[in-house]
Amino acid sequence: MQSCNERPPLDLERISATQCAMVHYHELALKGRNRGFFERRLVRNIQLALKDVEGTRVEQLHQRVRVLFPPDAKLDVIRDRLRRVCGVANFSVARVVPLDLAHPRLDTLGTVVIDEIRAQPFSTFRVTAKRADKRLSVTSMDVERAVGRAICEALGKSVSLKNPDQTIYIELLSKEAHVSTEKIDGPGGMPVGVSGKVACLLSGGIDSPVAAYRMIKRGCRAVFVHFSGRPLVSRASEEKARDLVRLLTSYQYTSRLYVIPFGEIQRDIVLNTPAPFRIVLYRRMMLRIAEQLAMRERCWALVTGDSLGQVASQTPENLSVIGEAVTLPVLRPLIGMDKIEITDEARKLGTYEISIEPDQDCCKLFTPLHPSLKTRRDVLQSLEKTLDVAPLIQRGLEKAEAEEFTFPA
What CA–CA distance (Å, rounded) separates 103 from 135? Predict the structure, then answer.
C-alpha cells in the first residue's frame, strides 16, 4: 500500500502524449480596455488557420493563447500555420507537465526536461522559466536552478547564460508547466480583421504583394484588384496574380480578387493623348476603377506598391496628381523603402519567385520612351476632357471578373 506521503511514479509516456503550442503576442498586450476584442480576434484567426487539423482546441489564457492538439497531429503543419497568423509574436511547441500550485514537483519537471533534451546535440544550455501565476510557491529562479542542476547531474552538460547551444523554456501556469526547446517567430503585428478592409492594387510585380502583406499584418483584410492587358496580351499576368493571392490568403484565410481587362481602355488613352502622359493617365484610370470596387466592398482605403522615385509614375509630382484622381485615401506602405529592401521582404514572404516569372504586364503596353516626370494637374485635366472618363470607368467595372480564395483550401 502506498503511504500518503509517498509520491506516485512519474508516467513519462502519458506526459509525452500531452502537447500544445503556447502562443505569445506583444502589441496586443499594450491595448487598454478593448484588449479583449483583439485577443478574441486572434483566437478566432488561429482557429481558422487550423480548422482542417482535427482535434485541435484553442484556449485564451492570461496574456497568451494555448493550442492543444492530439499526439498524432502533424507538427510541421501546425508550425507552418502558426507562423502565418498575424498578431502572433512567437510560439513554441511544448510538453505539458501537471503542476501542484502549493507543492510543485521540481524533480518531476527536471525529469521531463531531461527526457526532452537527452537526444539533442548540445554542450551548453540555459533554463529560462516564467511564472504566470504568482501564487506558485516557487519562483522562476528556483525552477531554473533546480532544473539546471538536474540537467548537469544527469547529462554532464555545462550552463552558459550568454551563449548557450540549447535554451530550455519553461512556462509555469496554475495547474501545469509547459516545457519547450524552441521559440518560433510569428509575423507580429495585429490580427487580421481588426482594421477594416482595404483594396490592394496587385500588379504581379515584386512590390505590390509586399505592400498588401504589410497592410494585412496591420490587421486589414485585403481585397485585390489586378489590371490585365487582355485582350491585347495573354492571361499570364492574371495567373501570377492568382498565385500571389493564394499565397497571401494563407495570412488572411479568405480573399477576393478582381481582374479588370484593361487593354482596350489603354488603347483609347493612347489614341487620344500625347505619349509622355500615358503612364500617369493609366494610373489615374486604374485608381478610379479600383475606388468604385473598393466602395462596393466597403473598403476604407486603396493600397499601392509605390516606392518614391523608383519609376516615372512614382516621382513626387506624379504620385500627387495620380492620388488626386480619387477621394479614398491612397496608402503606400513601401514609400520609403528601396528596391533591395522590398526584394528582401518579398523573398521572406515567398512572393519573390512568383513575381519574377515572365508575363505581359498591362503597364508595359504602349510605354513611352520619355514619360513625363513632373506632370501638372492642369495638363491632366485638359487631357482627360478628351477621354470620356466616366464611360471608361464603367467599361472597366462591367468587365471585372471576381474570384474567391480560401485557406486552408
Answer: 11
